[in-house]
């Protein structure tokens, strides 16, 4: 992961850099450019299963992978952004606008081994400050889900304790269930 403090680089300048949308994505936080780590197998498996589970559990929301969210002076790319359909800006053709300038309703980050938890938590807290209602940080090495909610104390979920969910998403999940998705079943 690369962090490069750049003086006099504005958010607008950052968004026009030619490599910003390269994979893995770049983020802009407090004038610092940082490239997210390239997802590994466990990360990708959890991300795929979360997207599928959330989308299957609701018609009110959509779960989007690696959606650039630019708001409140930052541009970040959550692993999964869950957004109520009505909040997605659309153009004259009824198609989504390419630039999403709101906090997601629910942000989900999957901690990578070479990623700093502090930076991930900082992005989740920024989302909550700007209207996000739920944030999860999955730690696959500890089989734990850190849960962030506005006006509530951060909690760590392990085992079979039900995780908080947004109203309108009919999904019951535990940390144990989520991390069981990492078990590869051989035929």
TrEMBL record:
InterPro entries: Nuclease_put_TT1808, Restrct_endonuc-II-like, Uma2. The lineage of its organism: Bacteria, Bacillati, Cyanobacteriota, Cyanophyceae, Leptolyngbyales. This is Uma2 family endonuclease. GO terms for molecular function: endonuclease activity. The keyword Nuclease applies. Pfam families: Uma2. Signal peptide: none annotated. Residues 12-174 form the Putative restriction endonuclease domain. The keyword Signal does not apply. Keywords: Endonuclease, Hydrolase, Nuclease.
């Amino acid at each position: 992961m690369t962090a490069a403090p750049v003086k006099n680089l504005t958010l607008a300048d950052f968004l026009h850099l030619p490599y910003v949308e390269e994979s893995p994505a770049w983020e802009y936080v407090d004038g610092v450019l940082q490239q997210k780590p390239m997802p590994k197998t466990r990360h990708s498996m959890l991300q795929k299963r979360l997207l599928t589970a959330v989308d299957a559990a609701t018609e009110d929301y959509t779960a989007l992978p690696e959606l650039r969210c630019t708001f409140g002076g930052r541009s970040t790319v959550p692993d999964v952004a869950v957004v109520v359909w009505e909040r997605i800006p659309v153009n004259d053709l009824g198609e989504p606008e390419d630039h999403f300038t709101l906090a997601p309703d629910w942000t989900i980050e999957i901690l990578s081994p070479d990623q700093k938890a502090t930076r991930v938590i900082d992005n989740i807290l920024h989302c909550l400050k700007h209207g996000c209602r739920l944030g999860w940080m999955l730690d696959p090495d500890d089989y734990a889900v850190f849960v962030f909610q506005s006006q509530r104390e951060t909690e760590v979920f392990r085992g079979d304790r039900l995780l908080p969910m947004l109203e309108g998403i009919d999904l019951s999940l535990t940390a144990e269930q989520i991390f069981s998705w990492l078990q590869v079943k051989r035929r």
